[in-house]
Automatic annotation (TrEMBL):
Residues 815-828 have a biased composition (Basic and acidic residues). InterPro entries: Biofilm_reg_signaling (IPR052155), EAL_dom (IPR001633), EAL_sf (IPR035919), GGDEF_dom (IPR000160), Nucleotide_cyclase (IPR029787), PAC (IPR001610), PAS (IPR000014), PAS-assoc_C (IPR000700). Gene3D superfamilies: 2.10.70.100, 3.30.70.270, EAL domain, PAS domain. Residues 185-238, 314-365 form the PAC domain. Residues 418-551 form the GGDEF domain. Pfam families: EAL (PF00563), GGDEF (PF00990), PAS_3 (PF08447), PAS_9 (PF13426). Residues 1-51, 108-181 form the PAS domain. This is PAS domain S-box-containing protein/diguanylate cyclase (GGDEF) domain-containing protein. Residues 815-847 are annotated as: Disordered. It comes from Rhizobium lusitanum. Residues 829-839 have a biased composition (Basic residues). CDD domains: EAL, GGDEF, PAS. Residues 560-811 form the EAL domain. SUPFAM superfamilies: EAL domain-like, Nucleotide cyclase, PYP-like sensor domain (PAS domain).
């Protein structure tokens, strides 16, 4: 074990130039060049660790006289289980006369070390007796460690680098390696590389020394990096699974025949294909041949013999008769070859093509019939092509047709220098029409819009439906935008006209984005993007308008996209907050309630009103989520007001059509009955129809059961009927501000509003007037019998805390008026109008 020479042959004596008797007792290291000592030590330890393997290394021996001779050394170890008993046999051969069979060639002195590096074989030696460990340079290298990097010295330190799923395995196998048994224990585990990724290590080791109590004293072994092999095995497994799936899905059977042994191996697919139970071995000349159709037998055998004899791949098709007596057609693809043992073999695949051939016969018959009816098929082909290129609902060309036309038009513009304009048209609030009136009404509207668009352009222009409610018009462009403006305005004006569907008057509008270019600059792909950006800009500016693409449109589009992201984040963070606008009794101007209005407390832009975010929220279809957030915060504010001693009779909150149709609305409300009676839900007049659908009706019944009242918002702008009001049974109608703003100057408006109030009272429904901004408004509405007033002339929307302060000041102000100036003209006027010292804050009507 220590390198002492026990015996030396004459060959070694000749190499060293010393008599063999003088070599016994000396150390072999005395004859090695200093730079070769490390390579010798590595292979010496490797031989002891793996006594069943020969270790080779190329060194230089210092012969008598100091001359060096390159030699190839083969090391083989023998021992009885203890390190002290290890005897290593070393065969020395001059490098120049190395045995060709061994494959050794003259070359570098560190050939063995280089081979170890190439093979990523590392040596480790754990001397448990002296508590010393040895790790070869390769051990460090495969783990990414530099020569001076620290290495694990204890089991706990080692396990920190082992994959958690492999730690128990490593512990178990190390325990096995430390048993008094020279047979190596081999296992694989994952180790964290210095760069952080996992590598696979194959560890081979055994105990080479133990004491008389069988306690391990020294364990020696090797490590190999098998990461690449593992990846290859995983890839092979993946390919095998895919191949198996492909074979099962395609019902293909695979076989391999050995003609020298007279046997064949069939996979499960072959047995299934021939309707047989699986067997271990199939004899050539037996099972398969017995099922071959007699009329095909001679031809098939001749074909097989010829191709196998000449090792030529081939395909064939033949009939077999299965056990059920039915005739099947089998198609085969085979590859003859000679294996490494010299056996002549053939591998192949079979699959049943009976159904395919039957289909081919049917197709042949169909072809015969088709040729006889060529004219009918041609007409059918044209019809199919038309259907493939046109929208089934509107009859307009579809996106596929548009893509084809765009390529032709673009090529024509570039070659002739002519111009092109794209008008991207999108219907405004089309989803609401579908939700409110049903898809049949939406379909009728789309057909109506398609007809209007065709009438708005020249016959030579191109109009297509490219999406649900999106259309594209391709028109000529001569360098002037005036004609494009006229065309866009005509489209918008035409689509503002109502269309009657099943007796229901549906109204819609459209927004249009326009991009144009001429000559060689025409890039329709880019123009489509530009028109889409312009369309988005048109919608952002209020809809029902058109917008040309400009250089700064893209930046505005990017800002709008950022706003979209901000809205979604704001919803998650709860940045939407309620602002409350007070409502007053029309006769006494006592506080009758509040309406909760949504505001966005933006972290950088400050407080934003709905006009800044509601259109985008509607496009994102999250209005109902915002409504619900405002509702939950209003419940919390109610508790605050009660704690402050404020008496707010009720709170109105908006509810979207989507939320009203939500089957989970009952769970979302989650409110106690005593609080529910404090709330009123405002529904847009356009939400409800004469015939309420089942889900809306169920949710409305639940709201009433809780005690939540229903109000109709913006009444007078929709299409509600008396029967619809009777079925819905709201508690109040909110008269839209558009009807109240001219009450002081228009007798017709007063008559109209008075009729709405009277109609509501006749049905037991109260009235709430929005948009009260002057004393005259309040007086007229009170005289008309209106029940409740709301508007900027009375109170502006305000936060929860501001509302507390405002109401407190209002109560104190009214108390002072009654106490000190009860008989003054100003007091009498304040009592009459209710506008005395009541914060009439103005600003944009942004509720």
């Amino acid at each position: 074990m220590d390198g002492e020479i026990l015996a030396a042959s004459d060959g070694l004596s000749d190499l060293l130039g010393l008599p063999s008797s003088s070599l016994a007792g000396r150390n072999i290291r005395d004859f090695l060049e200093v730079q070769d000592t490390g390579a010798f030590e590595t292979q010496f330890l490797a031989a002891i660790a793996a006594p069943d393997r020969s270790q080779r290394v190329q060194l230089r021996l210092r012969a008598d006289g100091g001359m060096s001779k390159p030699v190839a050394v083969a090391l083989m170890a023998e021992h009885d289980g203890t390190l002290a008993s290890a005897i290593v046999s070393a065969a020395f051969t001059e490098a120049g006369v190395a045995n060709d069979r061994d494959g050794e060639q003259p070359g570098t002195d560190n050939r063995a070390s280089l081979a170890l590096v190439a093979a990523k074989t590392a040596i480790w030696d754990h001397d448990l007796e002296s508590q010393e460990t040895f790790y070869s340079d390769m051990w460090r290298q495969i783990r990414g460690l530099a020569i001076d990097d620290p290495v694990p010295r204890t089991m706990d330190e080692l396990l920190e680098f082992v994959h958690p799923d492999d730690r128990q395995t490593v512990l178990d196998r190390i325990h096995q390696q430390r048993q008094p048994n020279l047979n190596p224990t081999i296992f694989q585990y994952r180790y964290r590389h210095r760069l952080g990724h996992w590598i696979w290590i194959e560890c081979r080791g055994s105990c080479i020394k133990w004491d008389r109590h069988n306690h391990p004293l020294r364990v020696l072994g090797t490590d190999n990096d098998i990461t690449a092999r593992k990846a290859w095995e995983e890839s092979l497994d993946r390919m095998s699974r895919r191949l198996k799936l492909a074979l099962e899905a395609s019902k293909i059977g695979v076989f391999e025949a050995d003609f020298d042994r007279g046997t064949a191996e069939w996979d499960d697919g072959m047995f299934r294909l021939y309707h047989l139970e699986s067997q271990e071995t199939v004899k050539i000349g037996g099972l398969w041949e017995s099922m071959l159709h007699p009329d095909d037998m001679e031809r098939v055998f001749r074909n097989v013999d010829h191709h196998v004899a000449n090792l030529i791949p081939f395909s064939d098709e033949y009939r077999v008769i299965l056990n059920d007596g039915k005739e099947h057609f089998i198609r085969t693809r085979t590859l003859p070859f000679i294996d490494s043992d010299g056996h002549r073999k053939m591998i192949g695949a079979n699959w049943d093509v009976t159904a395919d051939l039957a289909l081919q016969r049917d197709l042949a018959q169909a072809k015969t019939l088709a040729e006889a009816r060529n004219q009918e098929l041609e007409a059918a082909r044209k019809q199919i092509e038309y259907v493939a290129l046109h929208d089934a609902l509107t009859g307009l060309p579809n996106r596929r047709f548009m893509d084809r036309m765009i390529l032709e038009i673009e090529a024509e513009c570039k070659s002739s220098g002519s111009g092109l304009a794209l008008l991207h048209i999108d219907l405004d609030r089309f989803k609401q029409i579908n939700d409110i009136y049903g898809h049949h009404a939406g379909d009728a509207l789309l057909q109506h819009v398609a007809k209007l668009l065709k009438e708005s352009v020249l016959e030579s222009d191109f109009v297509a439906r490219i999406g649900g409610d999106e259309f594209l018009a391709i028109v000529g462009y001569d360098g002037s935008t005036e004609e494009l403006r006229v065309t866009a305005e005509r489209m918008i004006q035409n689509m503002r006209q109502p269309v009657v569907v099943n007796g229901i008057e549906c109204r819609s509008s459209a927004s249009i984005g326009i991009a144009h270019e001429r000559g060689k600059n025409v890039d329709v792909g880019q123009m489509l993007l530009d028109a889409d950006i312009a369309l988005y800009q048109a919608k952002a500016q209020g809809r029902s308008r058109y917008q040309f693409y400009s250089a700064n449109s893209r930046s505005r589009f990017a800002n709008a996209q950022q706003t979209t992201e901000d809205i979604l984040i704001a919803l998650e963070r709860g940045e939407f907050v309620p602002f409350y606008q007070l409502q007053f009794d029309a006769k006494t101007l006592a506080i009758a309630g509040v309406e909760a209005l949504a505001r966005w407390q933006h972290p950088s832009r400050g407080l934003l009103t709905p006009d800044k975010f509601l259109p985008i929220a509607e496009d994102l279809n999250i209005v109902s989520e915002i409504d619900h957030l405002i509702y939950r915060k209003a419940i919390s504010d109610l508790d605050i007001w009660k704690a402050e001693g404020l008496n707010i009779p009720k709170c109105s909150v908006n509810v979207s059509s989507r939320r009203l149709r939500d089957p989970n609305l009952k769970q979302l409300l989650d409110i106690q009955p005593e609080k529910a009676r404090w709330f009123s839900f405002e529904l847009l007049e356009s939400i409800f129809l004469d015939d309420l659908d089942e889900q809306i009706a169920e949710n409305l019944a639940h709201l009433r059961q809780l005690g939540i009242s229903i109000e109709i918002d913006d009444f007078g702008t929709g299409h509600a009927s008396i029967m619809g009001l009777l079925r819905l049974r709201p508690s109040a109608l909110k008269i839209d501000r558009q009807l109240t703003k001219t009450l002081d100057t228009s007798a017709e408006q007063r008559e109209l509003v008075g009729s709405i109030i009277s109609m509501g009272h006749s049905l037991g429904v109260k009235s709430i007037a929005e948009g009260v901004e002057t004393e005259r408004h309040a007086e007229v509405l009170r005289d008309l019998g209106c029940d409740t007033l709301q508007g900027f002339g009375l109170a502006i929307p305000m936060s929860c805390s501001d509302l507390i302060e405002f109401v407190s000041r209002l109560v104190a102000s009214r108390s002072d008026v009654r106490h000190d100036h009860a008989n003054s003209p100003e007091a009498r006027r304040a009592k009459k109008t209710g506008l005395h010292r009541m914060g009439r804050g103005g600003g944009k009507r942004d509720q």
